[in-house]
Design goal:
This protein is mostly helical. It contains 16 helices and no strands.
């Protein structure tokens, strides 16, 4: 029988990763202060900023909530799930506070550690309340009815997909253009080594210039842009089709994803460039591409889950190929990264990495679903087999 995989586990990893990223950002200027510079007993600061107090308290609440739910879904009792979650959150907070000794401008604080632990405890209390009310069991029964047993990571992918749109991609919904970033990273990592000649172009300045546009001057440029946008929209819809067991649920999920794509793209434009530019991305090729992607999704409603997974693999490969033909301007990306008006909503660049990596993670998940030996879902009215 297929193993049930809780959605809470991947979400707890994401929540923990967000905390680590936010605590240690910008991940630069590391230095070793010596053993005498690391105080294992965290110091008490002379004053506390209210915004920091609130952030420390609320930042760990979602982590405590989802991690406690994950332990509960793994068969642990309420007491065992509670102490495991609080202990894990407290230990992680303590380690992150110690690491701040290695970052200039960062100050460890015992108050932060206590607030983080209390915030996680509030999350545990919320999780135990949901469990006591039976709401967790209700969700479990609905999920067994609606989704395949291995849907946990797929549902997490669908939840994270809109977040990657908060950093504007080179084309609307055109996520996954990672090669320019990897190229620059390889050049930096191989600096002053014999291997740098392998990755450094003949003209090093071309690394920071606008990459060549394979579509420039082509009469098919609008059509190619529309196809890329359509593939960007169709990718999460294929993931939804591969994990949903019922026809009606597929329609609801796909409609919600189309709406999320529009809303988050408009939100990104509004917060990064100003409210008047919220829909400046709606060009004729972009609108045509979204209509094409949504129309193709209608064909997925009646397909089997294996077919949706196979089509999703083809769509994602096509998206990655197409989006790497679009020019990328590192100067534009760095300017957008530092733009104060959009820094908060993009979570200091983390949204960009969501957008860059999402197609690759989704591709791996779809391949696993296609090659896996899933137990067949129970037959129900409206289910697709």
């Amino acid at each position: 029988m297929a193993v049930h995989r809780s959605l809470a586990w991947p979400l707890s990893w994401v929540a923990g990763g967000l905390i680590v990223y936010a605590t240690l950002h910008p991940w630069a200027g590391w230095h070793w202060p010596g053993l005498g510079g690391i105080h294992w007993l965290l110091p008490k600061q002379s004053y506390e900023v209210m915004s920091d107090v609130t952030a420390n308290l609320l930042g760990y609440l979602p982590f405590g909530l989802v991690l406690c739910l994950a332990w509960l879904r793994s068969g642990r009792g309420p007491l065992a799930a509670a102490w495991r979650t609080v202990l894990t959150a407290s230990a992680m907070s303590y380690c992150l506070e110690l690491l701040q000794h290695l970052l200039p401008g960062r100050v460890p604080s015992v108050t932060d550690w206590i607030l983080n632990t209390v915030g996680a405890a509030w999350g545990v209390l919320a999780a135990l309340t949901l469990h006591a009310l039976g709401l967790v069991e209700v969700w479990h029964r609905l999920r067994e009815r609606w989704f395949i047993p291995q849907a946990g990571h797929g549902l997490a992918l669908l939840c994270l997909w809109p977040l990657g749109l908060l950093f504007p991609p080179p084309l609307p919904l055109g996520q996954g253009q990672i090669w320019p970033q990897l190229h620059l990273l390889l050049v930096e990592l191989t600096e002053d080594t014999p291997w740098q000649d392998w990755v450094l172009p003949d003209d090093p300045l071309s690394l920071w210039a606008v990459l060549p546009d394979a579509w420039h001057g082509s009469i098919w440029a609008p059509e190619l842009e529309a196809v890329t946008v359509a593939l960007g929209l169709l990718a999460p819809l294929c993931v939804a089709g591969a994990l949903a067991s019922q026809r009606t649920l597929r329609i609801v999920l796909m409609a919600a994803l189309v709406l999320a794509g529009i809303v988050f793209t408009a939100l990104s434009s509004a917060l990064n460039f100003g409210p008047v530019h919220a829909f400046s991305w709606v060009t004729l090729p972009a609108a045509t591409g979204m209509l094409l992607g949504a129309s193709c999704a209608a064909l997925l409603v009646g397909c089997g889950r294996g077919t949706c997974a196979l089509l999703g693999i083809v769509v994602l490969i096509g998206l990655l190929v197409m989006v790497h033909q679009v020019p990328s301007d590192p100067y534009y990306a760095e300017t957008l990264q530092a733009w104060e008006s959009g820094r908060f909503i993009r979570f200091h660049g983390l949204a960009r990495w969501f957008g860059l990596l999402w197609p690759f993670v989704a591709l791996l998940w779809l391949v696993a679903r296609l090659l896996g030996r899933d137990a067949p879902a129970p037959a129900r009215a409206g289910a697709n087999h």
